[in-house]
Amino acid sequence: MAVRSKSSKAWLNEHVNDHYVHKAQKDGYRARAAYKLLEINEKDKLIKQGTVLADLGSAPGSWSQVAAKLAGSDGAVFALDILPMEPVEGVSFIQGDFREEGVLQEFESLLGGRPLDLVICDMAPNMSGNSVTDQARSYYLCELALDFARNHLKTGGCFLVKVFQGAGYQEFTAQMREVFQSVQVRKPDASRNRSSEIYLLGKNKR
């Protein structure tokens, strides 16, 4: 049996004792990430009854669960991930690689030409351990998500995306400012302090 490294032991210990992990289990959410979206939504009111949105990088589905509940039967949630995702009531899901043109076209056909109120993106690449490579891969996904938001959001729509501080951050923020009237930073309590992840919120698509 493989010996766990100190860092993975520390992660496991932190995970087992994590308030949000226990809360997610109790509340029926598939991951602690649900509380990041709930907290941001509490502040910014992005999802309400009737909201039509896309959830990019949706597996295991906790953001889709939150979104479907908040958008209600008058809204619509379209989700996409390279990984499989157990069905979520009220969510239309496609499994596929967002970087592939065919998958993107299939997802666009699912939207049926409906302009979106919101695009949310909690995507991250498979981490290789090489910080330079991982950062570049992460921002490549972010740029694809921004491009999708630019093409499918209605005027005045919003875009919430996970990014990692470091190389590429300033450039990506500048790209978002070209598309949205305001770009704000969110670091919800459920996001671990030691993590360099933050969320950029683009409001009011031009």
TrEMBL record:
NAD listed as a keyword: no
Annotated keywords: Cytoplasm, Methyltransferase, rRNA processing, S-adenosyl-L-methionine, Transferase
Domain of life: Bacteria
Catalytic residues (positions): 162 (proton acceptor)
Gene3D superfamilies assigned to the protein according to its UniProt record, in alphabetical order: Vaccinia Virus protein VP39
Recorded catalytic activity of this chain's protein: uridine(2552) in 23S rRNA + S-adenosyl-L-methionine = 2'-O-methyluridine(2552) in 23S rRNA + S-adenosyl-L-homocysteine + H(+)
GO MF annotation list: rRNA (uridine-2'-O-)-methyltransferase activity
This protein's name: Ribosomal RNA large subunit methyltransferase E
